[in-house]
Automatic annotation (TrEMBL):
Pathway where it operates: Sulfur metabolism; hydrogen sulfide biosynthesis; sulfite from sulfate
Official protein name in the record: Adenosine 5'-phosphosulfate reductase
Species lineage: Bacteria, Pseudomonadati, Planctomycetota, Planctomycetia, Pirellulales
Top-level class of the enzyme under EC nomenclature: oxidoreductase
Catalytic site positions: C317 (nucleophile)
C-alpha cells in the first residue's frame, strides 16, 4: 500500500498492488462508510473500474492508510478540531475533564436558565449553539434571548429540510431579533445528487447524514470552546447518560445540555406559556422532525422518534451518539 498523493484536505490517492497489476484507488471509490467523507474532490472524476473489485482486506488496508495519513479516527472523524484548534485551545487533559465532571455535578439540580447563564459566563464569546429548530432548541433559543441574545446560533441547512422548519428561522428573527446562521455542505443538493447518481437518503442514509450534516458540523465546531445541546435524557437510551457539562469527544469541545433533566412535558409547557415559536408540523403528527425525505408522521402509541429514517435501523444522525 502506498499513499500516492494528497489531493487537497479531503482526498487522498492510494495505490495498492494486487497479484496482477497495480490499482489506483481513492476512498470515494470504495463502498464502505469509512470512506464516505471524501467526495467532492477532482479525483472523483477519475473513477477506476478496478477499484470497485477491492477485496475486503484491500479495502480495510486502504481505509487504514487513508485515515492515518489524514489524522482521522476509526469513524473517519478528525482527531483534532473543535476547541483544540481554538484560540486559546482547550485540551481534554485528565485535569480538565475532572473539572468538567465536577462542574456538571454541581449544576445537576440547577434550572436550564442557570445552566445557560453559567455557560455564557464561563465560555462566551467562544460559546455557540447548533439547532435543528426542534421544540427543545426553540426553548433554549428563547432562554438565550433573555440571557445572552448575542450568542451565535446556527443551523445545518442540508438542503432537505421542511419549508416549515426553514420558516422558523424568520420567526426567531422577528420574535427575538436573533439571526440563526445557516451552515451549508460544500455541494448543493443538485451537485450532490448529480455526483451520486441521484439522492442517497433512501439507500445510504448514514452516508447522506455524514456528508450533509456531520462534515458540516465538524467544520462549524472548529474554534469554539463550548456549545449548547438541546438533548433531554429521557429521549433515548443513547441520551440517558448525557452529563449537564462534558467533553464532546466527537466534536472536541465542551458540550452543555441545559435541558438534560427536563421532560417533554416541561418543554411544551414553557412553549405554550411563553408562546415560543415552534414547528407547525408538530401539530400534524410529527413529534420529531429532521429532513423532509427521512421524516414521516407517527401514529398514536408509536415511539417519538419512530418517524425518523423509518424502515432503517438508524435512529440518530450521528451528532449525539
Ligand atoms: S436526514 Fe435524510 S436527507 Fe437529511 S442528511 Fe440525513 S439521510 Fe440525508
Amino acid at each position: 500500500m502506498e499513499i500516492l498523493d494528497h489531493l487537497g484536505q479531503d482526498c487522498i490517492l492510494v495505490a495498492f498492488q494486487s497479484r496482477k497489476s497495480t490499482h489506483f484507488s481513492y476512498p470515494q471509490a470504495v463502498p464502505c462508510f469509512q470512506f464516505s467523507h471524501f467526495p467532492g474532490q477532482p479525483i472523483v472524476s477519475l473513477d477506476s473500474p478496478s477499484s470497485k473489485s477491492l477485496s475486503h482486506e484491500e479495502s480495510a488496508g486502504a481505509a487504514r492508510a487513508a485515515r492515518t495519513a489524514m489524522k482521522l479516527d476509526e469513524q473517519g472523524i478528525p482527531l483534532v478540531g473543535g476547541a483544540r484548534v481554538a484560540d486559546p485551545p482547550l485540551e481534554p487533559t485528565p485535569e480538565f475533564l475532572a473539572e468538567l465532571s465536577k462542574e456538571s455535578e454541581s449544576l445537576e439540580n440547577e434550572t436550564p436558565q442557570a445552566i445557560l447563564k453559567w455557560a455564557v459566563d464561563r465560555y462566551a464569546p467562544k460559546f455557540t449553539m447548533a439547532t435543528a429548530f426542534g421544540p427543545e432548541g426553540m426553548t433554549i433559543i428563547h432562554m438565550l434571548a433573555e440571557i445572552a441574545p448575542e450568542t451565535p446560533v446556527f443551523n445545518l441547512e442540508t438542503g432537505y429540510q421542511f419549508e416549515e422548519t426553514l420558516q422558523l428561522r424568520e420567526r426567531v428573527r422577528e420574535r427575538y431579533g436573533m439571526t440563526v446562521e445557516y451552515k451549508y455542505p460544500k455541494l448543493t443538493v443538485e451537485e450532490f445528487e448529480r455526483e451520486n447518481g441521484g439522492p442517497i437518503y433512501a439507500t445510504d442514509p448514514n452516508r447522506c447524514c455524514f456528508e450533509r450534516k456531520l462534515r458540516v458540523l465538524h467544520e462549524a465546531a472548529r474554534g469554539w470552546h463550548a456549545w449548547a445541546s438541546a438533548i433531554r435524557r429521557d429521549q433515548s437510551e443513547d441520551r440517558a447518560k448525557a452529563p449537564i457539562v462534558g467533553w464532546d469527544r466527537k466534536f472536541q469541545l465542551v458540550k452543555i445540555s441545559p435541558l438534560a433533566n427536563w421532560t417533554k412535558q416541561q418543554v411544551w409547557s414553557l412553549i405554550s406559556k411563553q408562546e415560543i415559536p415552534y414547528n407547525p408540523l408538530h401539530d400534524q403528527g410529527y413529534p420529531s422532525i429532521g429532513c423532509q425525505p427521512c421524516t414521516r408522521s407517527v401514529m398514536a402509541g408509536e415511539d417519538e422518534r419512530s418517524g425518523r429514517w423509518s424502515g432503517f435501523q438508524k435512529t440518530e444522525c450521528g451528532l449525539h451518539n
